[in-house]
Amino acid sequence: MKKLICLVFVLVVLASAVILPVSAAPETKDYSHLKGTTINVFNWGEYISDGTDGSIDVNAKFKEKYGITVNYTNFVSNENMYNKLVGGGANYDVIIPSDYMIDRLIHEDMLLPLDFTNIPNYSYILDEYKDLFFDKENKYSVPYTVGMTGLIYNTKIVEEKLTSWNDMWNEKYSGKILMFDNPRDAFAIPQFILGQDVNSNNKSDWEAAAELLKTQKPLVSSYVMDEIFNKMEGGDYAIAPYYAGDYLSMVEVNPDLAFVYPKEGTNFFVDSMCIPKGAKNKEAAELYINFMLQTDIAVANANFICYASPNKTVLSSDDYELKGNEILYPPNIDDYKTQMFTKLDTETQTLMTNLWSELKIEGSNNYGVYIGLALAVIIVITLIIYSVIKKKRRAAEYQ
Fold first, then answer.
1. Is 337 helix (H, G, I), strand (E, B) or coil?
2. Cβ–Cβ contacts within 10 Å for residue 343, how many?
3. What are phi and psi of 386, to 5 degrees?
4. pLDDT score of 392
5. What string of DSSP letters covers 317-331?
């Protein structure tokens, strides 16, 4: 896997230098019958060019071009997205999960195969991002972004140069440490520290990682996902793990932030566009996916969200502002130990979920919960007393 990832980055850089830009593959179909319809898109927060700061409003442009309204909502983690899908409370036409979650969704028969006649711009995806383990036949997914996870730190608080995930256990920064609020990313950190396989099915590995997370918990200010932007940009926190692309967005607001890929290793990921079963407007969803691959739109997204792009026309575009960025496209990828997440078996998935729940509950400040329960008990007792008194009064009236 490491060799594959090394090859990916090398070819990405080479592609940016030799491939001529193109705008969009010609559409040979008439999509006018989709005008006036709606699609529901479910994506990560801060993960699309939305018109702010002078950027292109991608969803508005799609409606302008095709007359199709985009109902756009966010999820904060792959697990949050999965729970929404299985909960059945909402129907989505396009979702953008990560590799291991796509693997799980395919195995649980929760995705629809794509009709690539509606996605001619798929030809713009680099071959290195096709035939990957989670969708070997390229039937269910179209790559959107790629990246790695690293350590963000505030140089106004942290004076030394950080190099290790172990720095998140430094008591000197107690109360100023943030941590992932999703189990897969959170567990990966102690797994890398312990030299484990992040896809291990060994129960003792996960329990050892959980124990290490428990020792960190007293030092953690809060477990976060999208909240990390305001917290790290505000300058009040010292250290946080997060995705490299999001660091590049944060450092534009707070130049005191620094970033490192820890020496123990890190996760390399591919996020892709998919259509879940239950989609109400599949053809329009495929048209949307194709639109997202269109050069000007893909460049706008790549510039805005600051993740590495698997789209060769982005890499060759003069409008791409992050071409050659060494955080997104490290020149010496062999210097980094990387591993991709894969789907866990059911037993390990359940174990991880249970260990995560125990971690979040154990030692938590539950005063608010206790107060709420006490108030509920008081209200119930009051109602019972009131009912008894009312019955006695009625009985007295009849006597």
1. coil
2. 20
3. -60, -40
4. 54
5. -TT-TTTT-TTTS-T
Domain holding 134: CATH number?
3.40.190.10
Q: Mark whether 138 and 126 lie in a shared domain.
A: yes
Looking up tokens 């918990």 gives: 217
Same domain, 130 and 163: no
Locate 331 and state its tokens. 């020149």
Q: What residues contact residue 379 under an 8 Å CB cut-off, 6+ apart?
A: none
Distance (Å, whole) CA 353 – CA 341: 16
pLDDT for res 238: 98
Q: How many domains does the chain have?
A: 2
Q: How far apart are the first and last CA of the chain?
A: 87
Q: Give yes or no: residues 126 and 83 share one domain.
A: yes
- Across the chain, where does the E strand assignment appear? 38-44, 69-75, 94-95, 142-154, 177-180, 220-224, 239-243, 257-260, 266-273, 338-339
Burial of 364 (0-12, 13-18, 19+ CB in 10 A): exposed
Residues 152 and 74 in one domain: no
Cross-strand pairs, 66: none
Residue 300, domain extent: 2-146+268-322
Q: What is the pLDDT of residue 398?
A: 46
Secondary structure string (H, E, C) spanning 182-205? CHHHHHHHHHHHCCCCCCCCCHHH
Do residues 256 and 155 lie in contact, with contact meaning Cβ atoms separated by under 8 Å? yes
Kind of pairing, strands 142-154 and 257-260? antiparallel
pLDDT, averaged in runs of 10, over the chain (399 residues) = 41 39 63 98 97 96 98 96 90 97 97 98 97 97 98 97 97 98 97 98 98 98 97 98 97 98 97 97 98 98 97 98 95 85 97 97 54 50 58 50
Q: Is the pTM of this model over 0.70?
A: yes
Confidence at residue 382, expressed as pLDDT on a 0 to 100 scale: 58
Side chain identity, residue 66: Y
Q: Report CA torsion sign: 28, 59, 138, 14.
A: positive
What whole-number distance in Å separates Cα of residue 129 and Cα of residue 270? Answer: 8
